[in-house]
Write a structure and sequence with these properties.
Elements lengths: L1 H11 L3 E3 H8 L3 H14 L3 E13 L1 H9 L2 H8 L5 E3 H8 L9 H4 L3 E4 L2 E4 L7 H10 L6 H9 L3 E14 L16 H5 L25 H15 L11 E3 H4 L31 H13 L13 H4 L2 E3 L4 H17 L1
Helix pairs in contact: 4-8
Keywords: Aminoacyl-tRNA synthetase, ATP-binding, Ligase, Nucleotide-binding, Protein biosynthesis
Organism: Microthlaspi erraticum
Pfam family, one: tRNA-synt_2d
Length: about 325
């Protein structure tokens, strides 16, 4: 294993100069094996190392072809005679598969000129910088970022960022073999805690964020409607009064006192406080009269209305009770004004 190889090598050597060289010499995959092991050993302070990164380039098929034959612009330049000119048709025949749009970079570079349908040289000697860069990459040399971007745009190379470690040495907690640390607080581990070494925990580390869920689509639509009305000048009724009297919850909405919804198996009644502090007596009297004998177009229920039933406190069963309170309050404001 890569871990055993790294710790064993450091036991008899001062340092590992380069993780890439170490991987090649010991037949390990650098990225998936050696780098991952080094990260883990660094976390446990078993080793110390300096991380480095860079960009590696690989020639693509077209790039390999140009590294061997030369760039298409230079091939076009060389196909043009030193003296005189050549027709575009003949030039295409000479270049064959090497003819491409990039060939005309020779014209952009002012190496050749096109007069009518004929091409002639403007200079006698040119340097194939593209081929030079491709050969540098092929030999494992590094090139500047601007050149990499140019070659990538021409799809001659593919680059990728690499990570490695240099100057790998023993850490403050180095050991030839990684000690096995207890990670779980099991019954057995707690009983033998003196003999065990526990993995260090960062008690200040933040845990994984708790997903709070999402709003139901209907709640989103409801909020949109509410926002529209608020912007028009309406005010939202307060709905935080969860304990309500039977009067506002049932009687003011003209639900008969014998209705099954008012039974204890359908409604939660309170023992303390069992009754409201106060009710508007004038309105209570009018509601009682309509219940018993009707009014305002209603025939009523023609039965006795009991105040003790209306006085029972309960957990509000619907928000329409809030509407009943608010309509009464608004009516009083209108009367006062």
């Amino acid at each position: 294993m890569a871990e055993e190889a790294i710790l064993g090598y450091l036991e008899s050597n001062e340092q590992i100069p380069d993780s890439r060289q170490f991987s090649a010499e010991h037949n390990f995959d650098h990225d998936s094996e050696v780098c991952n092991v080094i990260k883990s050993l660094l976390c446990d302070s078993l080793i110390e190392a300096q991380g480095i990164k860079g960009k590696a380039c690989v020639l693509l098929e077209e790039g390999m072809k140009y590294a061997q034959q030369g760039s298409p612009e230079v091939q076009l330049f060389l196909a043009v005679p030193e003296e005189g000119s050549i027709s575009v048709v003949e030039l295409k025949e000479r270049l064959g598969d090497s003819y491409s749009n990039f060939s005309w970079k020779a014209k952009e570079n002012k190496w050749v000129e096109l007069t009518g349908n004929r091409v002639s040289r403007k200079v006698q000697h040119v340097e194939d910088k593209v081929r030079g860069l491709l050969l540098q990459i092929q030999e494992g040399e590094e090139i500047d970022e601007a050149s990499i971007n140019v070659l990538e745009r021409r799809q001659l190379i593919k680059s990728k960022t690499w990570n490695a470690y240099i100057a790998i040495t023993k850490g403050p907690k180095y050991a030839p073999e990684r000690p096995k640390l207890a990670t779980d607080l099991t019954r057995e581990n707690i009983a033998n805690w003196k003999e065990l070494k526990f993995k260090e925990c960062n008690i200040n580390a933040k845990g994984a964020p708790v997903e709070g869920g999402h709003l139901h689509p209907l709640l989103k639509v409801r909020k949109q409607f509410k926002d529209i009305f608020v912007q028009m000048g309406f005010e939202e009724m307060p709905t935080n009064n969860y304990v309500e009297s039977s009067f506002w919850n049932f009687d003011a909405l003209f639900q008969p006192q014998q209705h099954p919804a008012r039974d204890s198996h359908d409604t939660f009644f309170l023992k303390d406080p069992s009754e409201p502090k106060a009710l508007p007596e004038d309105y209570v009297e009018r509601v009682k009269r309509v219940h018993e004998s009707g009014g305002y177009g209603s025939r009523g229920y023609n039965c006795e209305w009991k105040r003790e039933e209306a006085n029972k406190n309960l957990l509000r069963t619907h928000t329409t009770a809030v509407s009943a309170r608010m309509l009464y309050a608004l009516a009083q404001v209108s009367l006062d004004s």
